[in-house]
Specification:
By secondary structure, the protein is mainly α. It has one domain. About 35% of the residues lie in helices and about 0% in strands. The protein is built from 2 helices and no strands. The longest helix has 9 residues. The radius of gyration is 13 Å and the shape is elongated. Pfam families: YhfH.
């Protein structure tokens, strides 16, 4: 069953910024929806 969970996460599409659509680097404890550039501009 653990293998199915890992396969699920491997197949998720890349996380994208909700403002500009740029692909974001995912981090384990980060739940932000904006990239660093868009986050800094506010």
């Amino acid at each position: 069953m653990l293998e199915n969970v890992m396969e699920f996460f491997r197949n998720l599409p890349p996380k994208k910024c909700v403002t500009c659509g740029e692909k974001m680097e995912e981090q384990a404890e980060a739940y932000g929806t904006k990239c660093d550039k868009c986050n800094a501009s506010h």
